[in-house]
Design goal:
The complex is a heterodimer of chains A (360) and B (370). Chain A is of the alpha/beta class and 360 residues long. Chain A contains 15 helices and five strands. Chain A has two domains: 236 residues, no CATH class; 91 residues, abc type-2 transporter like domain (abc type-2 transporter like fold). The radius of gyration of chain A is 27 Å and the shape is elongated. Chain B is of the alpha/beta class. Chain B folds into two domains: 235 residues, no CATH class; 99 residues, abc type-2 transporter like domain (abc type-2 transporter like fold, 3-Layer(aba) Sandwich). In chain B, strands 2-1-3-4 form a four-stranded mixed sheet, with helices on both faces. In chain B, α13 packs antiparallel against α14. The chains are: A alpha/beta (360), B alpha/beta (370). At the A-B interface, α2, α3, α5, β4 and α7 of A face α2, α4, β4, α6 and β5 of B. β5 of chain A pairs parallel with β4 of chain B, so a sheet runs across the interface.
Chain lengths: 360, 370
């Protein structure tokens, strides 16, 4: 029994390693793809392009402009007229346009109060909102109010708000889902397409064992990928801190790989060829990845989506992984995440198992 | 070119696409993505779960708490617990912000002695953390200027005019970018399988042995897919303007023309994958990976192109999605149309891209047994 099982697993693994294209794509997804996502996305407003028109001709405007600097702002670019400035904003080369009117300096000196006009490209709502906040803070600091209250702000787990940490982790979890589903489904459908299922049937092996072994081999590939990605990309390139136990993360990943294999089994059961596998897995995975909270935190979503996300195993996996990496939750605090992944996982896996079992 | 052969071949492709239920992929997936992402991506932070520990329980501290309670950005609970218990709530992901008001807060304030309020924010989600930080600062600052009138007034007020997206709605910012993402991913996945499928099933040999030319074969493969996906250009437009109420201020012709070009480019990208791969599974995974990431990252949807630097700026200029999205955001929110030289340039780049990728595809495609 154990020998048959390991022979079947070995057969699948050899088949996988023979297809060098597939090996390359899987390796790419677990390394470079995660690296690019982590490096590429920066949703914080940083490096904002600023332009200005200065008609006040005074030192005040200079002093304010000198406070706009990296990493939040690029060096402000002077424009000869308001028309030129707004043309640059319309072409989306400049995001923030400051206009110092001719009365700016006079008003500030005489009345202690002046107005600063601001043109804002608010297409990217988040960044423009943050840009506005930055500017407000700069102007406030400049005014040098004797504030009696000091705010001591601590951003826990990620003091410098490194987006790369979060993005790389979220991307890795999405890659696991994507490959877990598609690889498993492909292993079964390819045999269906080629007609080699029938040969499998002729062998005196329990079909249930075949299914288990085939899906287990793909789980192994995914877990190996997770180990590589965590070691090389997360720790190697991004230096992500891990405040909890790495073993609990690998254990959670192992269970989650089974869950996604379960979805793959279901997809394999309902599709006749690879074309349909592609369709169904994308149709199932898009909402799954999306409802997981990888992009938007769950409690910020529409209530309908929030409730739907309760049945997404990825939700528990992502929250669990975040807790392990950033919040440093100890193993006994992870019960609900393990329960979510294992609970939904076993339902999905057994459903898929039954469903593909009916082919026999 | 033999028109009759191309026509017959196209008809065969059309029938296959419809018979293989590929039509579901063509029409269900784009709509599903735009609805899910359009409703789901919320960059704006509301209902941040805030726990205020008020150790002072004075009039001023009450006033401050009330300001948090009345803000739509915070879901406030006021509790009295020790600091460790509060930290554990953040660790268990039950609270986003903990604000601790110290004892004798009011007394020190009235005596004009400096006091400190401690704020702890869950930083696991960095963008949210930064936004929440700004909100907290804003509320406390407003409270301070009003509660403590002795603050000297030498103020600069910012009169901001938000162009293009006055209300700063997330829908306006995200939905046009989603069109660029969807029209890149969906056609590419469809065409990625068109040729590799025949390779894997062996039917490609009938093409090798027939007198059909390479160009005829490619046209016959791409045109049905292009026609089917052209309908999506209109469907997505309807969802954006009607369901998400994104304003449309520019030229519809420009939107349409640019989108047709862009769909052709995406089909070309998929076709390239189909030519260089041997198995369908590799083709599918490869297409998903090379389209979804640039569609999100280098599209200008989550981060303005003008804020990019270094490698990411170069990468953004390589993918077609940046040029298309510039035009889409222009037609939806800005409305300069072809008067703007930048739009003319980007449209020209899209034309060049489309030509380049189809020519490269037909050059790489080999009509022989390998």
């Amino acid at each position: 029994m154990i020998r048959t099982f390991s022979a079947l697993v070995a057969k699948e693994l050899i088949g996988f390693f023979r297809s060098w294209g597939l090996v390359a794509v899987v390796l790419y997804s677990f390394t470079l793809d995660i690296y690019i996502a982590g490096k590429g996305i920066e949703m914080q407003a940083k490096n904002i392009a600023v332009g200005y028109v200065d008609r006040s001709g005074g030192g005040m405007s200079r002093k304010i402009l000198s406070r706009l600097h990296m990493p939040e702002f690029q060096k402000p670019i002077p424009f000869p007229s308001q028309e030129a400035l707004s043309r640059a904003i319309f072409n989306r080369e400049i995001m923030v346009g400051l206009i110092f009117g001719s009365d700016f300096e006079k008003d500030l000196k005489k009345r202690g109060h002046a107005k600063l006009d601001l043109l804002l490209d608010s297409v990217a709502a988040t960044q423009s909102f943050q840009a506005l906040q930055y500017l407000q803070n700069i102007v406030l600091e400049y005014a040098d109010l004797q504030m009696p209250v000091v705010l001591k702000i601590h951003k826990l787990f990620n003091q410098n708000a490194e987006t790369a940490w979060f993005m790389a982790l979220a991307e890795m979890l999405s890659v696991i889902t994507l490959l877990g589903v598609i690889l498993t489904a492909a292993v079964f459908v390819r045999e269906k397409e080629n007609g080699t299922w029938d040969i499998m049937l002729l062998t005196p092996i329990d079909p249930k064992l075949i299914i288990l072994a085939k899906s287990f081999s793909q789980v192994l590939i995914i877990v190996a990928g997770v180990v590589i990605a965590t070691g090389i990309v997360l720790f190697g390139s991004f230096d992500i801190p891990i405040n909890g136990s790495i073993w609990s993360f690998f254990l959670l990943s192992f269970f989650y790989a089974f869950t996604s294999a379960g979805i793959g089994l279901f997809v394999a059961a309902i599709s006749k060829n690879m074309l349909q596998v592609a369709q169904f897995s994308i149709l199932i995975m898009m909402p799954l990845i999306f409802l997981s909270g990888a992009w938007t935190p769950i409690h910020a979503m529409d209530p309908v989506l929030q409730n739907l996300s309760l049945i997404s195993p990825l939700r528990y996996y992502i929250e669990g992984s975040e807790s392990i990496f950033f919040r440093g939750t100890p193993f006994d605090g992870l019960g609900s995440y393990f329960a979510g992944v294992i609970g939904l996982g076993s339902v999905l896996y057994f459903y898929g198992f039954q469903k593909i079992g009916k082919v026999f | 070119m033999n028109i009759g052969v191309v026509k017959a071949y196209m008809l065969k492709e059309f029938k296959e696409l419809i018979r293989s239920k590929m039509i579901m992929m063509v029409y269900v997936m784009p709509t599903m993505i735009i609805i899910l992402f359009g409703y789901g991506i919320r960059m704006e932070v509301t209902h941040a779960r805030t726990l205020i520990i008020d150790n002072d329980r004075s009039k001023i501290s009450h006033d401050l708490t009330a300001r948090f309670e009345h803000s739509k950005y915070f879901d406030t609970t006021v509790g009295w617990m020790n600091e460790d218990a509060a930290m554990n709530r953040i660790k268990a992901a039950k609270t986003d912000i903990v604000i601790i008001i110290p004892e004798s807060f009011e007394k020190r304030l009235l005596h004009r002695q400096p006091t400190e309020i401690a704020v702890f924010i869950d930083g696991a989600f960095p963008v949210r953390a930064a936004t929440m930080e700004n909100y907290v600062k804003g509320v406390v600052f407003n409270a301070a200027t009003q509660l403590v009138p002795q603050i000297p007034r030498k103020l600069i007020t910012i009169e901001n005019r938000n162009l293009f997206n006055q209300a700063m709605r997330d829908e306006n910012a995200i939905v046009p970018g989603l069109i660029g993402l969807i029209l890149l991913v969906a056609p590419a996945i469809l065409s990625a399988l068109l040729i590799v499928k025949e390779k894997e099933e062996g039917t490609i040999f009938s093409f090798f042995s027939s007198p059909v030319k390479k160009s005829e074969f490619i046209i016959a493969k791409l045109v049905p897919a292009l026609l089917l996906h052209s309908v999506n250009i209109f469907i997505l437009f309807l969802w954006a303007t009607w369901l998400f109420e994104v304003p449309f201020r520019g030229s519809f012709t420009l939107y349409w023309f640019a989108s047709e070009l862009y769909v052709l480019i995406s089909l070309g990208v998929g076709m390239m994958v189909s030519i260089i791969t041997r198995t369908q599974i590799v083709a599918i995974v490869l297409t998903i990976i090379i389209t979804i990431i640039p569609g999100f990252l280098y599209s200008g949807m989550l981060m303005p192109i003008s804020s990019m630097s270094g490698e990411s700026k170069i990468e953004a200029h390589i993918y077609p999605v940046m040029y298309y999205n510039h035009l889409v955001y222009d037609t939806f929110l800005i409305g300069q149309g072809l008067d703007s030289p930048k739009n003319q340039l980007y449209l020209a780049i899209l034309v060049g891209y489309a030509l380049f990728i189809t020519l490269l595809g037909s050059w790489l495609m080999k009509k022989e047994i390998r």
